[in-house]
């Protein structure tokens, strides 16, 4: 059944509204309204006697359509509208609200020539990245300022908060870090064993595993796991606090959010990451030793002897010294992105992702720089 | 009408709500009749919002039943539940607008889901709902974070009204509004209530609003609900209820309401 039937009625028009006029029929009603002819003049009588359950939405669309067709209630209007047959009581309310249709969706901006827009895009990007880099340096500076303050005002170091974050980022990460370090070093030792066996150089698997784990893999794996775990947690925690105005509340109470939120997290990582690295190193060596025993029949005693021959005194430290640097990178990126969250939950998700991706990237970049540096220093 | 006792729109029977060892509701009964504005008051932490969430089925109670339109909400199939959800409009205390959508999109969200229609019609309806709650048209393109507290409340009400519900559940709708807006909101509520045959359950601490709009009031004390007309509540001798309705603020509101009624 049609929701509308339009008849010519003497001098004017008669619009019968039939059947269900609730929100559930709005699609059909809208379609039929759009099909009304634009050339009506005289009096238009809306007959509501056969409309059922008129909802405010459909009635609103009707009024909107009629007003678009030039309808009015004054006698000067080209199309005078009268409602008959028990119009819905809401019609007065709706008429008083005055129909308003916002300007059509803005047309897409006129397309610029490809090269100019590309240059413009590049320029905007450069300016944005420049500002971002400046803000990041400022953030680092503010962390340093709080660290400096700790010497003159020891209370600026929030011990309970620091302890909680060491627990969250360090202690609870032990199982996963240990497991992954163990498994990866088993895999590396296995690959090495297969290749080195061809040359009868089985024993060098020990060199491969120990140097690989202690110099690079132990610390790098740990940092990547921690970036995934804690980098995201930092960004999300601080981000939600931003959305709830908690950070502003802290500021308003005279606290420095850097001191309360950022520094404890970064410091906690600086303490926890080296310790986790030691655990990862130990588990990695254990994995190597186990595989050497099972696959190459090198007993643990012999593994240990070879291990001492293979290692320079600095090998262990060459890995461990990188841990605090990675920790600062991860902690800073995570907290910085968290502090950037504004306004919406979508921002929170985006910046948490950015925090993880960026901190992993920074860790790997820093690791590469360390490799070059140690090579030059012969460390 | 009270004698013929029409089927209550909302009926809560023997509701028990506990959080750990803390008992919030202990055998709470509530009946909301069709086409009334029912005010829920109670001290902070007396479980007003918990009651609202339980009525909506967002929280499973530890005991008791909740019926909407005579149907137990715990025993509904998914389609029945969807139907029921569409006939309840809700506003939460802090608005709960989806922060990644602008206001028009927030209002259109349920419409788009349940009544697909062309974009232009959606825009028209968004404007209608904005108008209904007295927000300027350009609010449509704004995001929740750009709105003031009062505007957020109105936008939330606009979203609650978008499906043209028969039952409106409002959690502190006038808190945070300036007195003029709050009064306008009361009038709007009365108008919608009269014209759209809305049933309203409203949690409020706004005594002006309570005196102006509510037919009956439920007070949550000691985990139970005491229900009465406003006039009855004023006679109630329970200490908390007496303090609530006879405090300095209550008197001012009462006088204002009496004046308004005579004018």
Give an account of the 3D structure.
The complex is a heterodimer of chains A (379) and B (263). Chain A has helices at residues 26-34, 56-68, 90-97, 114-152, 159-169, 174-197, 204-243, 246-252, 257-296, 300-310, 315-320, 322-340, 345-377; strands spanning 4-9, 12-17, 19-20, 42-47, 51-52, 71-72, 79-84. Chain A is α/β, with parallel strands linked by helices and 379 residues long. Chain A has two domains: 4-97, Transcription Regulator spoIIAA (2-Layer Sandwich); 147-377, no CATH class. In chain A, the strands form two sheets. A five-stranded mixed beta sheet of chain A has the order 1-2-4-7-6. Chain A has a two-stranded parallel sheet with strand order 3-5. Chain A is elongated, with a radius of gyration of 36 Å. With 263 residues, chain B is an alpha/beta fold. Chain B has a domain at 94-164. Chain B is 41% helix and 23% strand. Chain B contains ten helices and ten strands. In chain B, the strands form two sheets. A six-stranded mixed beta sheet of chain B has the order 6-7-8-3-9-10, with helices on both faces. In chain B, α3 runs parallel beside α5 (149-161), α4 (119-132) crosses α5 (149-161) and α6 (179-195) packs parallel to α7. The chains are: A alpha/beta (379), B alpha/beta (263). The A-B interface holds A 22-24, 26-27, 30, 55-57, 60-61, 64, 89-90, 93-94, 97-102, 243, 342-346 and B 98-100, 115-118, 121, 123-125, 127-128, 131-132, 137-138, 140-141, 143-145, 163-164, 191, 195-196.
Helix-strand blueprint:
The complex is a heterodimer of chains A (379) and B (263).
Chain A (H helix, E strand, L loop, with lengths): L3 E6 L2 E6 L1 E2 L5 H9 L7 E6 L3 E2 L3 H13 L2 E2 L6 E6 L5 H8 L16 H39 L6 H11 L4 H24 L6 H40 L2 H7 L4 H40 L3 H11 L4 H6 L1 H19 L4 H33 L2
Parallel strand pairs in A: 2-4, 3-5, 4-7, 6-7
Antiparallel strand pairs in A: 1-2
Helix pairs in contact in A: 1-2, 2-3, 4-9, 5-9, 6-7, 6-9, 7-9, 7-10, 7-12, 7-13, 9-12, 12-13
Chain B lengths: L9 E10 L2 E11 L4 E6 L5 H8 L7 E6 L2 E2 L5 H9 L1 E4 L11 H12 L4 H14 L16 H13 L5 E5 L7 H17 L3 E5 L3 H7 L2 E6 L2 E6 H6 L3 H8 L1 H15 L1
């Amino acid at each position: 059944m049609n929701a509308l039937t339009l008849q010519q009625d003497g001098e004017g028009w008669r619009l019968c509204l039939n059947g269900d006029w609730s929100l559930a029929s709005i699609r059909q009603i809208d379609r039929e309204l759009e099909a009304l002819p634009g050339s009506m003049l005289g009096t238009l009588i809306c007959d509501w006697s056969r409309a059922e359950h008129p909802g405010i939405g459909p009635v609103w669309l009707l009024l909107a359509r009629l007003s678009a067709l030039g309808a009015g209630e004054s006698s000067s209007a080209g199309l005078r509208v009268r409602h008959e047959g028990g119009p819905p009581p809401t019609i007065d309310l709706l008429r008083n609200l005055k129909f308003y249709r916002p300007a059509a969706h803005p047309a897409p901006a006129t397309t610029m020539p490809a090269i100019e827009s590309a240059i413009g895009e590049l320029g905007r990007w450069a300016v944005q990245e420049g500002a971002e880099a400046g803000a990041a340096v400022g953030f680092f500076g503010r962390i340093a300022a709080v660290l400096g303050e700790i010497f003159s005002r020891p209370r600026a170091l929030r011990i309970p908060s620091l302890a909680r974050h060491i627990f969250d980022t360090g202690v609870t990460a032990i199982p996963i870090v240990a497991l992954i370090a163990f498994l990866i070093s088993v895999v590396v030792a296995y690959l090495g064993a297969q290749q080195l066996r061809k040359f009868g150089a089985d024993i060098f698997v020990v060199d491969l595993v120990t140097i690989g784990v202690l110099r690079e893999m132990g610390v790098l794996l740990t940092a990547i796991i921690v970036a995934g775990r804690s980098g995201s947690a930092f960004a999300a925690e601080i981000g939600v606090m931003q959305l709830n105005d908690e950070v502003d509340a802290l500021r308003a109470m005279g606290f420095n959010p850097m001191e309360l939120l950022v520094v404890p997290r970064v410091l906690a990582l600086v303490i926890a990451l080296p310790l986790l690295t030691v655990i990862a190193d130990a588990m990695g060596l254990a994995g190597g030793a186990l595989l050497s025993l099972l696959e190459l029949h090198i007993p643990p005693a012999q593994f240990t002897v070879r291990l001492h021959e293979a290692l320079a005194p600095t090998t262990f430290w060459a890995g461990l010294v990188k841990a605090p640097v990675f920790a600062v990178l991860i902690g800073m990126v995570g907290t910085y992105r968290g502090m950037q969250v504004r306004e919406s939950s979508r921002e929170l998700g985006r910046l948490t992702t950015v925090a993880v991706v960026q901190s992993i990237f920074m860790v790997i970049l820093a690791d590469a720089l360390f490799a070059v540096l140690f090579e030059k220093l012969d460390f | 009408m009270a004698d013929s006792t029409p089927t209550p729109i909302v009926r809560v029977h023997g509701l028990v709500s506990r959080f750990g060892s803390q008992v919030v509701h202990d055998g709470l009964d509530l009946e909301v009749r069709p086409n009334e504005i029912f005010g829920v008051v109670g001290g902070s932490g007396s479980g007003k919002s918990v009651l609202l969430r339980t009525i909506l089925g967002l929280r499973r109670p530890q005991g008791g039943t909740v019926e909407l339109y005579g149907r137990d909400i715990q025993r509904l199939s998914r389609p029945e539940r969807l139907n029921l959800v569409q006939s309840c409009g809700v506003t939460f205390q802090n608005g709960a607008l989806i922060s990644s959508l602008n206001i028009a999109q927030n209002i259109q969200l349920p419409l788009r889901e349940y009544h697909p229609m062309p974009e232009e019609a959606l825009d028209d309806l968004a404007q209608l709902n904005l108008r209904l709650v007295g927000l300027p048209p350009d609010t449509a393109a704004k995001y929740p974070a750009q709105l003031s507290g009062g505007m957020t409340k109105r936008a939330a009400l606009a979203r609650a009204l978008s499906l043209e519900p028969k039952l409106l559940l409002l959690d502190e709708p006038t808190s945070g509004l300036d007195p003029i807006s709050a009064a306008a909101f009361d009038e709007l509520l009365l108008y919608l209530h009269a014209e759209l045959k809305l049933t309203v359950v409203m949690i409020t601490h706004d005594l002006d609003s309570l005196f102006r709009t509510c037919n009956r009031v439920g007070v949550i004390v000691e985990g139970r609900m005491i229900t009465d007309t406003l006039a009855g509540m004023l006679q109630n001798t329970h200490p908390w209820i007496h303090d609530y309705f006879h405090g300095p603020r209550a008197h001012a509101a009462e006088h204002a309401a009496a004046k308004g009624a005579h004018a």
